[in-house]
Amino acid sequence: MIRRIMPGRAAMFAAGAMLLCGCGAMRNDRYYEKSVEIPSDATAEERVDIASRVVPTPQQLAWQELGLTAFLHFGVNTFTDREWGDGTENPDVFAPTALDAEQWVSTLKKAGFKLVILTAKHHDGFCLWPTATTGHSVASSGWLDGKGDVVAALRAACDKYDMKLGLYLSPWDRNAPCYGDSEAYNDMFVAQLRELLGKYGKIDEVWFDGACGEGPNGKRQEYDWERFRRVMEELQPEAVLAITGDDVRWVGNESGLGRTTEWSVTPLVPSIFPDSEAANARLGINAMSADLGSRELLAKAESLHWWPSEVDVSIRPGWFYHPDEKPKSLRELAEIYLQSVGRNSTLLLNIPPDRRGLIATADSLRLMELGEWIDTNFSNPAGRSETGTIIAFPEPTEINCVVAGEDISKGQRVENFMIEVLNSGKWRMIADGTTIGHKRIVMFNPITVDAVRLTVTSSRGEPNMKPLEAYLVEMPAAEQADSTNVPAGYRAVDGATASLHGDAIQISLPEVTKVSGFIYTPHADARPGTLYRYKCETSADWGTWTVPSGITGEFGNIMHNPTPRTVIFSTPVDARVMKLYLKEDTRGASGVSPSWADITVLTQE
């Protein structure tokens, strides 16, 4: 028996209480689809049993089986060389010279992707379809004389190549005059949703970003999440709602790294529910917490949710196309695959189209390499169990990888496991781990074996295991990383030293130098003081300070994507010293001292 409990939290509680009253006499064949409330008097054992019977919806199950999905970050930022536009862009800056959505989709299809998500509207508010809600859209640009429609072009390409389509619509809108007037903006956002979900055929994933970089005096918008979801369920009932939704969860980073212990069943309350902030604070967890499903959390939980993680990461350092950036190496992408798909998650890999409106050649080639690597290494197992979790090889066989999985239609149950191999007549353990879920890829040093087995050492009830598979995986060769990040035509100034001085990072040069810009690389563990909005000053004599031209004063998305950011001055300046002041961090705090970072001062060659 499957019982789905949603959507309102109050209704969910009432249904959950009715379902679970008398936990001790609970039927062992009962499952709880997507969400369930836990009675306050449930024992520890009953809580674990309830957790073992939370299962995905059919839409969530189909989404999990995709494995590899693609993001296309494309818009005005592509042409302004920014990550977060501010909404003041002239629509004419959007000027792709050879946009070809079929090139996008055919490339992704060949590389093994099954779904593609387009940023139909990013934080700048620029819409890639001719919307009736705003003039900040393709209809106001010179591209195709204002008659272009990127969403329609992608829809047609997806239909041609049998690719699933998802759409990203940013709730944060830096262009809309009504943003901050909650009722008016929610009406506008719903109108945009209705256009996108009602005019472009079947949509499989709707992506609501949770980002917002408004400062202490910024606009405060109260989103009507429940209304947004009702629109989605009315127009696209088979779609999953991601991130600011309760179908798909953000993994908590943008580095392509899934947790080593990844529970799809979690007490973390999705932010689409109005009481989520208080509920999660009571549990002491958020989307970035390392523990989202342990027995310790179950003991305090009031509700449980089937909310699987999506690992989003870009093939390049930035999310939008930047001419001076390069794609990650095949080795990096292979490791990301193992740490995402191989850790009970779905990989959402961003491939940003360039200013022509095409996937860049370097990115396309890397995608083909990734697809070939996955196909070569994971299509033909060296051995597969017929039943159970033991593989007996007909002859000694070299392996270095085991792929395990649970039948998650019956829940996620494995808490700990170990992998043993048989050679020379003896079993010995070579690896162990915690959660398995939909798929777990376990790598170890190559070894020749007669048999391999997986043993579940602890679980939440009887586990429902899929056949075990073994492989000999060849990892791509590691490439030497380019640690300079210096753009062509520039060089780093030798002898520059940086130090913290109160509310500024001060960079001293050995002599007066014609400075053309700088590269700011935050340390990943220095988030509270990372420069988001900042002020830059330079001086040639330590007395007269000037603000160089050509500075945006903002590093969009740097808190979650702490990659090197390059700033080029419109006009080079003579400088002996440079200061970077923290204006405020993304959480709106002021007066926070900047944390340490690597600063590379640039001059033209």
Description:
The chain is an alpha/beta fold and 605 residues long. Helices cover 21% and strands 30% of the residues. The protein has twelve helices and 27 strands. Strands 9-8-7-6-5-14-13-10 form an eight-stranded parallel β-sheet, with helices on both faces. Helix 7 links the parallel strand 7 and strand 8. Helix 5 packs parallel to helix 6 and helix 7 runs parallel beside helix 8. The longest helix has 18 residues.
Helix and strand topology:
Blueprint: E1 2-4, H1 9-20, E2 31-33, E3 35-37, H2 44-52, E4 54-55, H3 58-64, E5 68-72, H4 76-80, H5 101-110, E6 115-121, H6 150-161, E7 164-169, H7 182-199, E8 205-208, H8 225-235, E9 240-243, E10 249-250, E11 265-266, H9 276-283, H10 295-298, E12 303-306, E13 309-314, H11 330-340, E14 345-350, H12 361-378, E15 383-384, E16 390-404, E17 414-423, E18 426-433, E19 440-459, E20 469-471, E21 490-492, E22 497-501, E23 504-522, E24 533-539, E25 545-546, E26 565-584, E27 597-604
Parallel strand pairs: 1-2, 2-4, 5-6, 5-14, 6-7, 7-8, 8-9, 10-13, 13-14
Antiparallel strand pairs: 3-12, 11-12, 15-20, 16-19, 16-20, 17-18, 17-19, 21-27, 22-23, 23-26, 23-27, 24-25, 24-26
Helix pairs in contact: 5-6, 7-8
